[in-house]
Write a sequence for this structure.
């Protein structure tokens, strides 16, 4: 038995290091399903070896990731809602209730805060927006409805200098035409750049968070665009809102 | 569970609630170490960035994968990064292209981390402990550990490259792990 366990220990060490192949890997798989779960000794050995494997990473010098990595992560997080947890948009809507009401911004009166069930998410994200609102130079910008766009459909942009984040909010945003969605554009020097994914309101509510540095742009424009297309420039027909930054 | 690991537990608890600030704190705390090991294993900046991104997204989307009863969050997360790095390097079949430097696990006791990397003091303490423990290993044991862990090589490949029986590789590997485990636990290795 002792000899068996010595052999198993060696296999488990190789397994913890991802260094097994061929028959050894197959035997380790078998041991992990048939023996280890019922053997306290091997179970403890495997846990120790796996913890050690994690700590071995510290032997490598830490290296600062590129500045672009965290914004990429934020974007990826926003793109995929979390199963079993409040969706990002819901969280932000709830936050908008307290934060925007707190600053009495533009007469907005969101009413969807009761969608939230996770107080931690609410509190955590509230700090993000509060932090942004407290940033020097932060101020909400009301976007003006263009053309036939209903006058009551206010959209508000919130950003701050030196903060690579922009929030877009509305409580009465009309549904876009069938087959269409809204696209946010930022403009500067006569050039427009599509920012973020296209979006549609939910029950009239829009609340977007985008990782972007607005300091290099002069204007913001929301336009109605065909879903599935990758618009190269803002459409001039359909609903739209626009403002100087 | 060491007292130094408790802040990580709190971070994980907040992460489980979808707390974005906790995610950012996790990134600040482990981003440098994660990117460091990913870069060491893959020796490719873009691949290392993908590895780190995948690991952070994985823990964000499935924080329940970490079981506090099974050890420190630090070990779990860095192990996750390492696994993904090894997977990536094997997938890309770049094992033979990497430089000797990238797979050289010469422990550097007392070396300071890169100046522009933000790391917690406690991670620095653990890093020093790990490096000091590695320095106690016989060269032949450290070599197989290095080739497996940072080289991403299987024991069969290591045996072939070193021209030694695979049984010897297995024995040296486990002996190295046993000594490291004892050293890091503050035990006398028998």
């Amino acid at each position: 038995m002792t000899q068996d366990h010595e052999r198993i220990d060696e296999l488990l060490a190789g397994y913890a290091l991802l260094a097994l192949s061929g028959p050894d890997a197959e035997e380790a798989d078998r041991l992990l399903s048939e023996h280890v779960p019922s053997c306290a000794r091997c179970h403890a050995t495997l846990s120790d070896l796996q913890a050690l494997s994690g700590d071995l990473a510290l032997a490598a010098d830490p290296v600062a990731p590129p500045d672009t990595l965290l914004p990429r992560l934020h974007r990826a997080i926003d793109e995929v809602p979390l199963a079993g947890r409040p969706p990002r948009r819901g969280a932000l809507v709830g936050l908008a209730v307290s934060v925007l009401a707190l600053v009495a911004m533009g007469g907005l009166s969101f009413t969807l805060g009761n969608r939230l069930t996770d107080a931690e998410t609410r509190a955590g994200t509230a700090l993000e927006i509060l932090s942004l609102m407290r940033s020097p130079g932060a101020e909400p910008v009301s976007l003006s409805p263009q053309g036939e766009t209903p006058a009551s459909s206010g959209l508000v942009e919130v950003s701050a200098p030196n903060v690579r984040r922009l929030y877009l909010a509305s409580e009465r945003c009309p549904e876009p035409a069938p087959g269409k969605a809204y696209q946010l554009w930022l403009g500067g020097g006569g050039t427009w750049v599509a920012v973020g994914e296209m979006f549609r309101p939910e029950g009239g509510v829009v609340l977007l968070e985008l990782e972007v540095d607005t300091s290099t742009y002069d204007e913001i424009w929301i336009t109605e665009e065909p879903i599935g297309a990758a618009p190269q420039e803002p459409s001039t027909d359909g609903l739209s809102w626009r403002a100087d930054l | 569970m060491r007292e130094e690991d408790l802040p990580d537990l709190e971070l994980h608890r907040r992460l489980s609630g979808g707390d974005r600030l906790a995610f950012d704190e996790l990134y600040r705390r482990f981003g440098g170490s994660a990117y460091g090991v990913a870069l060491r294993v893959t020796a490719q900046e873009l691949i290392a960035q993908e590895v780190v991104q995948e690991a952070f997204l994985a823990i964000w989307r499935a924080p329940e994968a970490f079981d506090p009863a099974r050890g420190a969050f630090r070990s779990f997360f860095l192990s996750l990064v390492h696994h993904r790095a090894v997977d990536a390097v094997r997938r890309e079949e770049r094992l033979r292209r990497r430089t000797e430097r990238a797979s050289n696990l010469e422990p550097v006791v007392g070396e300071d981390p890169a100046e522009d990397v933000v790391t917690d003091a406690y991670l620095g303490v653990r890093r020093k402990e790990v490096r000091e423990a590695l320095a106690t290993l016989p060269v032949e044991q450290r070599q197989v550990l290095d080739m497996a862990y940072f080289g991403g090589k299987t024991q069969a490949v290591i045996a072939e490259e070193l021209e030694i029986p695979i049984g010897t590789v297995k024995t040296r590997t486990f002996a190295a792990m046993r000594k490291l485990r004892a050293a890091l636990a503050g035990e006398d290795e028998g």
Observations:
- The radius of gyration of chain B is 17 Å.
